[in-house]
Design goal:
The chain has 147 residues and is an alpha/beta fold. The protein has a single domain, classed as Ribonuclease H-like superfamily/Ribonuclease H (Nucleotidyltransferase, domain 5). The protein contains 5 helices and 5 strands, in the order βββαβααβαα. It has a 5-stranded mixed beta sheet with strand order 3-2-1-4-5, with helices on both faces. β2 and β3 form a beta hairpin. The longest helix has 18 residues. The two termini are 25 Å apart. 28% of the residues are buried. Pfam families: rve. This is DDE-type integrase/transposase/recombinase. InterPro entries: Integrase_cat-core, RNaseH-like_sf, RNaseH_sf.
Length: 147
């Protein structure tokens, strides 16, 4: 797969059994709309962003021009993340605050995930949630939106 552009954003998902939110960092290939990677945890730090992209790049053909579009979350504006993308010759684009339409692909994916998974399942713990999210990702990448 060639990465022409990626959109990444964090979605909060309720874990009822733990009475707290987990975070899902999703990276989509804008061209294919595939979920090419996600990271799920109770908190996501800049090191997790870099680690996720390292795993993604291990399995992809990296094109000459690469773009990553993200919001202005602390994980994405961190100096280490910006340096990482610069070292990998990736153009990092930031969306303007309160403009979800600037990252519409990821917003659409998270909306589908909300309808297909979050509103239909109650998670007892993060392991349960990860298993379900991985199954959803595989289904979505294979067959498209399940709605």
């Amino acid at each position: 797969m060639n990465l022409t552009a990626a959109a990444d954003r964090i979605k909060f998902v309720w874990v009822a059994g733990q009475s707290r939110n987990m975070q899902v960092l999703t990276v989509l290939d804008v061209y294919s709309r595939w979920n090419i990677g996600h990271y799920i945890s109770y908190s996501i730090k800049y090191q997790d962003v870099i680690s996720l992209f390292e795993r993604i790049f291990e399995h992809m053909i990296i094109p000459e021009k690469k773009y990553v579009r993200c919001d202005n979350g602390a994980q994405f504006i961190a100096e280490m993340v910006q340096r990482y993308f610069k070292d990998k010759q990736i153009v990092q684009e930031f969306t303007k605050p309160a403009t979800p339409q600037q990252n519409s692909h990821i917003e659409s994916y998270h909306s589908i995930m909300e309808s297909a998974v979050c509103q239909k399942f109650e998670f007892s713990n993060i392991s349960d949630a990860k298993k379900t999210m991985n199954q959803f990702r595989d289904f979505y990448n294979r067959f498209g939106a399940p709605i």
